[in-house]
Task: inverse folding
């Protein structure tokens, strides 16, 4: 088990933020977790430690949003996500984490700028679910989620323009990532990322999972739907810029 106090100084807020994202503040903010933990351990180790904790968070989130998810969107996105995970597993040893960061960062920033321009022009209309877009963004989310748990921005790009009711939006995110993270356990184990040290560290940190999710859910209950969407786009923009910066200066 990791005993370095600096690791826990980074890991505890990272896990609480991830849980709050799952509980109601949107997936964008969750991306800071792996980079934050990577201040003290390698990104690969951080991702391995986080995965069992994420699975625990997913079950709490599913219970919180029970029955409140869009079945049609899950039908359109999950097959692509599973395919993206498979591609990520077989290309794992050849992946450049910085290239993934740059790609997600560029897409996220461009998406947010487009949203704000349309909002200013009052031309931001709802987009219906789409099997083509759902499969595409689902596959990108699965691929990026496998490497650095960065599936939030791609799936947000697909989901946010639909302007779903806030609990339906977060419930769909919760169910999507529960399936994605459970599927990821298989290739993570196959690649040997769950060694004794990582698993024991995850076990020590897992009690934080329900705390973070319920904090996020508490905030969701008390915030207006417009604020929730603005927070989602804001965090998506900030994290997109951070990923761009991290990838370019590496």
Result:
């Amino acid at each position: 088990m990791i005993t370095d106090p600096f690791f826990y100084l980074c890991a505890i807020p990272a896990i609480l933020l991830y849980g709050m994202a799952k509980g109601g503040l949107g997936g964008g903010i969750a991306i800071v977790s792996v980079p934050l933990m990577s201040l003290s351990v390698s990104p690969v180790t951080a991702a391995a430690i986080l995965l069992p904790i994420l699975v625990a968070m997913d079950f709490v989130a599913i219970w919180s949003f029970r029955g409140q998810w869009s079945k049609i969107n899950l039908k359109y996105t999950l097959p692509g996500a599973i395919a993206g995970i498979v591609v990520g597993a077989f290309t794992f040893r050849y992946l450049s984490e910085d290239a993934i960061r740059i790609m997600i960062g560029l897409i996220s920033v461009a998406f947010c700028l487009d949203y704000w321009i349309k909002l200013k022009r009052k031309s931001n209309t709802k987009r219906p679910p789409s099997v083509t877009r759902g499969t595409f963004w689902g596959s990108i989310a699965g691929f990026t989620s496998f490497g650095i748990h960065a599936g939030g921005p791609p799936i947000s790009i697909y989901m946010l323009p639909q302007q779903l009711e806030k609990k339906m939006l977060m419930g769909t995110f919760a169910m999507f990532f529960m399936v994605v993270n459970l599927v990821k356990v298989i290739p993570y184990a196959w690649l040997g990322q769950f060694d004794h040290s990582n698993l024991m560290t995850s076990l020590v940190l897992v009690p934080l999972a329900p705390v973070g999710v319920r904090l996020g859910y508490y905030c969701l209950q008390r915030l207006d739907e417009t604020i929730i969407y603005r927070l989602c786009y804001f965090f998506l923009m900030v994290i997109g810029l951070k990923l761009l910066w991290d990838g370019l200066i590496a």
